[in-house]
Amino acid sequence: LTERFELFVNCHEVCNAYTELNDPVVQRERFKDQLKDVAAGDDEAMQVDETFCKALEYGLPPTGGWGLGVDRMAMLLSDSQNIKEVLLFPAMKPEETGPVPAKAAADLTPWESHKRAMTAASKEGEEKGKEIAGLAKLGGMKFFCTQIETAEGDLELLEHAMKAMNLKENPGDKEKKEESTDIGKMIFSAGEDCLSIVTYVPKDQVEEVDAMEWTSEVLRTLEVPVEFMQGVPKPFYATAIVPKDMSAKRLPVKMKDVAHQSAMKYLIDKGVHRA
């Protein structure tokens, strides 16, 4: 919807009028502008909808129109001031039974609470994976950094988000989805007590970027030892937990932004990402 106006006659609203943007070239450019906002961290920006753009190419002429409903016409003819007075089928007021209270977080068992957190992190990971795939499709990038808010600094939840990002498409799915499996990623999550980092690099790209080296460089920028890497880091996968340290002024939220900038600088210096 690009334009909209309402027609009033003698203080009565007669109709709603509108035009729609049906130029596929202009619409695709607007989607690309949205992807720039995604890259800048705007979670509400839209992805490229190629199906919609293709539909505009084949199916929709320039569209505009106006609408005048029977109820509004009846309001005008009867000189009523409120359309509710002339509605042929007014909405029935539902019985006031009161809202069904959601189960409070405090009432959840530890298992239920953990399951809810896992679901939220996986969902955010899947959504971020689609955004990254859309950016890669347009810009040809092979590496990306982003943040997962719902993990709240929990490394296990952050790893589940990474798994959701790398989840391959099911051949049985009717709707094709974008995949980011072939894109190297470093994701961050800041909690109350620590900053967690998960790094993934496709095995056929480790000669360009080594996950251990990439993670080590971020830890060096944060001025913490590489021993903060967890488990057995590999060239294609590494994780790290950086605990909060008030005496060293290491706050998870601040470290997250510094780590993100450091990770992007590493990619630019390696020549695998444009500045």
Automatic annotation (TrEMBL):
GO CC terms, sorted: cytosol
Aminoacyl-transfer RNA synthetases class-II family profile domain span: 56-94
Please list the GO terms describing molecular function. ATP binding; lysine-tRNA ligase activity; tRNA binding
This protein's superkingdom? Eukaryota
Q: Name one GO biological process term.
A: lysyl-tRNA aminoacylation
**Gene3D superfamilies, per this entry?**
Bira Bifunctional Protein, Domain 2
Xref: InterPro entries:
Aa-tRNA-synt_II, aa-tRNA-synth_II, aa-tRNA-synth_II/BPL/LPL
Q: Which UniProt keywords apply?
A: ATP-binding, Ligase, Nucleotide-binding
PANTHER family tied to this protein: LYSINE--TRNA LIGASE, LYSYL-TRNA SYNTHETASE
What name appears for this protein in its UniProt entry? Aminoacyl-transfer RNA synthetases class-II family profile domain-containing protein
Q: Which organism is it from?
A: Cymbomonas tetramitiformis
